[in-house]
Amino acid sequence: MILLFVASFISLSGVVDSMEITLHSSAVALLLGWFEILLISGQLQQLSLKLEMLKTVSLIIQDFMVSYVLLLIAFAVSFNFLFKGRIQMDGTEIFSNPLFPLVKTAIMFWGE
């Protein structure tokens, strides 16, 4: 709760001159605000069942991802080997960041 107030104060007051820090504190305030709403809505009887279902499904997905993390890393490394150095139409290099294939593979994995 205190972090929410601090992040909101930083983003709204103009104390910090850097636009980047203001945007980051706004994003943190937004995330913490939604988390607070989620905690408050969990106390309502109609929504608590849905939150329990969300928690159960999230834990199942977490268990699934933990069991397949080595396969995910293997696919990411193979994509990095295959596509590293290739140039897109707009001139940017594909997979220039080594973490990008891991994120891209995780997104494909969750979509299946």
SSE blueprint and pairings:
Blueprint: H1 2-13, H2 19-41, H3 45-67, H4 69-83, H5 100-111
Order of helices and strands: HHHHH
Give the proportion of residues in helices: over 70%
Strand content: under 5%
Most strands sheet:
none
According to DSSP, the number of beta strands is: 0
Structural class estimated from helices and strands: mainly alpha
The unreliable regions are none
Overall 3D form: flat
Rg on CA atoms, Å:
20 Å
Distance between the termini: 37 Å
Structurally, the number of domains stands at 2
Mean pLDDT: 82
- Specify the number of helices: 5
What does this entry look like structurally?
It is a single chain. This protein is mostly helical. The protein folds into two domains: 1-52; 68-112, no CATH class. It is built from five helices and no strands. It has helices at 2-13, 19-41, 45-67, 69-83, 100-111. Helix 1 runs antiparallel to helix 2 (19-41) and helix 4 (69-83) crosses helix 5. The mean pLDDT is 82.
